[in-house]
């Protein structure tokens, strides 16, 4: 049992809080579920929670944690586990306990942990876990994407959001680009696919759901376990969350969205107490919850009044009215300072109040020598300290470590005996209130020395990081080393206070690098620490430009983990409740980081920054940024880490491929393969580039190499089928598509390509069946409807083709491809005016695209307007002489006119440019029916 709290002075605020809480324990259903105490500056929050425990320990079991003090509670799941461990265990075991149901939380948590381990260590098939599987598990489970963010609940700053990211077209670094829906997909989709295939989960739908959305399900189990435990023990359960201002945003979201809003705890003997500096109801999400559910009771604690201060001081035998007045003037009635006075008196140390309204800093430092005060201020700059750190600071500041504080004790030992120093998680630190006071006074007294101290601390942690992993070591060795990450996080924290622009650039460099390496703690730790400190009133410790910078990037930083590596044009952000920052606001916040890319030091951070900036730049600028990224890749790459070095170039190749810079992309894939000749995605993507360069045999050889490396990847088989189709090896192509479908039966792209290949083999009914299967898999997929319409068009089933195109246009109303094809269908039906209207809409959307001008010419020719038709096809040739569309269109127009010579001449020119497309289409195009029997036409085909 906790010892009684001495000298407790009851205030109405505190008494109201305790009374309301007692009623909630007695009658849960009609009283709030969560009780909050808040207030700044040592107003007695922790003391009040101790008083609450003292009052109710006979009838309640308590589990108490303190953010920043209690280890291992940085995620919702870890917090639940810690709270559950802290609750008292049953003292006896009865037969009814043996026969009762298993603990719902422990059972589900153990199942989750066991499955998590299997997903990380056991392959889907084969002998080892591949990189794709490792990244999928890391993205989704290890890094929290599968926790709150993906289930539609994330809290960012003061704007509460229920976040659900649709990243269907997000750039997947190192992925394969030939098939966007497969290669460029959200981490949730990749996790779903892994769960459906993995032996540990594939036959267990409930387990798949648990791994896909662990936090909601584990929270329900946690709540049920608390209810069950309270019922069995016939005791109330109270969870106390102290220093809540330091809680991570995911914890805050979990608390309001899952534990409070989404469980039935309010009706049972379970209550939650939160103590922090600020009101929960400052945040929109909490206000909305309170309006909807009325689950919260909050009480602000103010400093003691003059009478309460007098009462407190009389308890410790300070009774002179003059002394009481001086103490009240100095302490402002704050319990933290009054408690310090109590400790000083108990230690028989005299306190000098002769200067009347004395600054509290001087009061706390009273009795210390000038050098002792300096030592305390130096220690206050540290988030934590040990003997080595204090000895380093003393040496740099010219203070003798052995005798600088006093003759009998070295500086470290002397510090650890100070009342305001606490021992937490194996390290010493000043308590929050004392640290706030001493740092602020240090900065106000001598800002230059304050900045110099943080510069010394930054150098200390930088040197320590370099001792853990040598400065010239490959980047993966650094970011994969936990001690290096911890030291670097401390280095960044101190650099922000010391280095102004340089500190900001260090932060940005590591933001980009840690996102690339998927080790966000390197920047999350310093960012969270500084943002928490910014909440302190009158906090003016950061350089002004750094404070503005952190405020400007805050929104972008909080979303950076999900969107930094994604093209803004290819992702959307949607909110369940319709509120939250827009994509434009988030991207605007990130732009403050990208303006600094040119000034970053060479290395991984600059490389990643150039990649991420290229995604947000005009196509004309993208190539230049990527070429500069190549320079950084050359600087970073090392033979000792071929996997990561190879991916540096493969990533650049992917982005150059998207820009259609095929030669440069190919050079980067070749470089990636030169470094590591078994990198699957480099071989596969190299094949895609060669295919686009119409080097089909080389493309096929490249993708065959990828298959030799891993023959169970459906996308590689799809790519192989496409390449065989380009070589007009249709039977082999069909077999490749069938292999892809055998590996993944719902592979939409494989069904679509299978249908197209069957069409080339003139197996039209089977082709239609494949397109219908694709539509069955996703009935709102416009490309499937488009391909189906194209096949029906070649079968001269114009009405059915038009129906499919109309459905596609309902999904994507302004898609030029669909409008153009619809115009061709309408022209076959004799609806020329409507057909021309459709093709004109396509031309409005893409006025410089030669295919639309050629198609307009074909429609005009079918309407008998031959002169206009030839002119339209001529415009296509003028726009792009090396494109086959204009010549093919002219061939159609002359054939419809009966001009065989010019029809053959133009078809020959078109075939010379693109033989595959032109021959394939001419075989079934009714426009050539008048010359189909001509030997010259047949020879061209």
From TrEMBL:
Protein origin, superkingdom: Bacteria
SUPFAM superfamilies: P-loop containing nucleoside triphosphate hydrolases, TPR-like
Protein keywords: Repeat, TPR repeat
Mapped TPR repeat ranges: 646-679, 680-713, 714-747, 748-781, 782-815, 850-883
Pfam families assigned to the protein according to its UniProt record, in alphabetical order: TPR_11, TPR_16, TPR_19, TPR_8
PROSITE patterns noted in UniProt: TPR, TPR_REGION
InterPro entries in the record: P-loop_NTPase, TPR-like_helical_dom_sf, TPR_rpt, Ycf3
Name recorded for this polypeptide: TPR repeat-containing protein
Naturally occurring in which organism (per UniProt): Nostoc cycadae WK-1
């Amino acid at each position: 049992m906790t010892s009684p709290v001495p000298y407790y002075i009851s205030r109405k605020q505190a008494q109201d809080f305790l009374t309301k809480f007692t009623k909630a324990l007695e009658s849960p259903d009609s009283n709030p579920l969560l009780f909050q105490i808040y207030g700044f500056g040592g107003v007695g929050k922790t003391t009040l929670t101790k008083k609450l425990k003292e009052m109710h320990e006979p009838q309640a079991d308590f589990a108490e944690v303190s953010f920043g003090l209690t280890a291992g509670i940085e995620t919702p799941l870890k917090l639940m586990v810690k709270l559950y461990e802290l609750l008292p265990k049953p003292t006896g075991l009865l037969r009814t306990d043996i026969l009762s149901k298993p603990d719902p939380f422990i059972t589900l948590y153990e199942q989750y942990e066991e499955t998590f381990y299997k997903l990380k260590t056991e392959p889907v098939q084969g002998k080892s876990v591949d990189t794709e599987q490792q990244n999928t598990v890391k993205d989704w489970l290890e890094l929290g994407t599968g926790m709150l963010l993906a289930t539609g609940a994330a809290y960012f700053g003061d704007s509460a959001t229920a976040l659900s990211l649709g990243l269907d077209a997000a750039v997947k670094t190192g992925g394969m680009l030939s098939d966007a829906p497969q290669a460029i997909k959200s981490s949730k989709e990749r996790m779903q696919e892994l769960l459906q295939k993995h032996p540990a989960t594939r036959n267990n739908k409930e387990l798949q759901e648990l791994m896909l959305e662990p936090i909601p399900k584990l929270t329900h189990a946690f709540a049920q376990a608390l209810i069950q435990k309270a019922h069995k023990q016939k005791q109330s359960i109270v969870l106390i969350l102290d220093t809540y201002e330091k809680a991570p945003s995911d914890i805050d979201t979990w608390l309001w969205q899952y534990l409070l809003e989404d469980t039935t705890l309010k009706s049972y003997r379970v209550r939650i107490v939160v103590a922090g500096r600020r009101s929960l109801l400052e945040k929109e999400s909490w206000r909305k919850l309170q309006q909807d559910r009325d689950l919260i009771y909050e009480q602000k604690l103010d400093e003691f009044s003059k009478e309460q201060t007098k009462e407190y001081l009389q308890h410790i035998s300070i009774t002179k009215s003059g002394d009481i007045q001086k103490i009240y003037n100095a302490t402002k009635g704050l319990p933290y300072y009054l408690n310090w006075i109590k400790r000083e008196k108990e230690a028989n140390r005299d306190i000098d109040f002769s200067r009347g309204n004395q600054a509290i800093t001087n009061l706390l430092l009273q009795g210390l020598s000038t050098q002792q005060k300096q030592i305390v201020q130096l220690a206050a700059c540290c988030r934590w300290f040990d003997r080595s750190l204090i000895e380093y600071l003393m040496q740099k500041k010219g203070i003798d470590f052995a005798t600088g504080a006093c003759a009998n004790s070295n500086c470290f030992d002397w510090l650890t005996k100070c009342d305001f120093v606490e021992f937490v998680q194996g390290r010493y630190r000043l308590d929050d209130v004392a640290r706030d006071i001493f740092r602020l006074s240090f900065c106000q007294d001598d800002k230059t020395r304050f900045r110099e101290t943080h510069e010394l601390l930054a150098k200390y942690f930088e040197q320590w990081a370099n001792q853990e992993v040598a400065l010239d070591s490959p980047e993966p060795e650094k970011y994969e080393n936990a001690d290096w990450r911890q030291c670097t996080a401390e280095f960044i924290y101190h650099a922000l206070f010391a280095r102004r622009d340089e500190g900001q650039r260090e932060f940005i460099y590591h933001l980009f690098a840690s996102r690339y390496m998927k080790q966000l703690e390197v920047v999350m730790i310093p960012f969270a620490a500084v943002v928490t400190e910014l909440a302190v009133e009158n906090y003016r410790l950061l350089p002004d430009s750094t404070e503005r910078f952190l405020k400007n990037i805050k929104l972008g930083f909080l979303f950076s983990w999900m969107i930094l590596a994604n093209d803004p044009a290819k992702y959307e952000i949607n909110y369940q409740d319709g509120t939250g920052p827009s994509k434009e606001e988030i991207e605007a916040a990130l732009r403050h980081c990208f303006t600094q890319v040119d000034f970053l030091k060479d290395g991984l951070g600059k490389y990643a920054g150039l990649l991420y900036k290229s995604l947000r730049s005009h196509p004309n600028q993208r190539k230049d940024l990527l070429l500069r990224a190549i320079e950084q890749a050359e600087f970073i790459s090392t033979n000792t880490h071929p996997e990561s070095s190879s991916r540096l170039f493969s990533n650049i190749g992917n982005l150059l491929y998207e820009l259609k810079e095929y030669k440069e992309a190919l050079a980067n894939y070749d470089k990636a393969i030169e470094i590591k000749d078994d990198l699957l995605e480099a071989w596969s993507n190299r094949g895609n580039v060669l295919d686009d360069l119409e080097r089909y045999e080389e493309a096929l050889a490249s993708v065959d190499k990828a298959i030799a490396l891993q023959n169970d990847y459906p996308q590689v088989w799809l790519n192989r089928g496409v390449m065989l189709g380009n070589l007009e090896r249709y039977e082999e192509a069909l077999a490749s598509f069938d292999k892809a479908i055998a590996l993944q039966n719902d592979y939409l792209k494989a069904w679509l390509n299978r249908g197209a290949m069957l069409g080339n083999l003139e197996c039209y009914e089977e082709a239609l069946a494949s397109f219908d299967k694709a539509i069955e898999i996703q009935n709102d997929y416009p490309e499937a409807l488009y391909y189906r319409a194209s096949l029906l068009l070649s079968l001269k089933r114009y009405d059915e083709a038009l129906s499919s195109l109309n459905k596609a246009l309902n999904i994507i109303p302004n898609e030029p491809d669909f409008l153009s094809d619809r115009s061709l269908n309408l022209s076959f039906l004799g609806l020329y005016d409507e057909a021309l209207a459709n093709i004109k809409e396509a031309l409005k959307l893409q006025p410089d695209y030669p295919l639309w001008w050629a198609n307009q010419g074909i429609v005009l020719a079918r309407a008998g307007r031959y002169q206009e038709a030839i002119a339209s096809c001529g415009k296509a040739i003028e726009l792009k002489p090396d494109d086959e569309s204009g010549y093919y269109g002219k061939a159609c127009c002359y054939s419809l006119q009966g001009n065989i010579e010019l029809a053959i001449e133009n078809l020959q020119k078109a075939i010379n440019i693109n033989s595959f497309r032109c021959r394939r289409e001419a075989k079934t195009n009714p426009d050539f029916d008048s010359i189909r029997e001509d030997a010259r036409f047949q020879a061209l085909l």
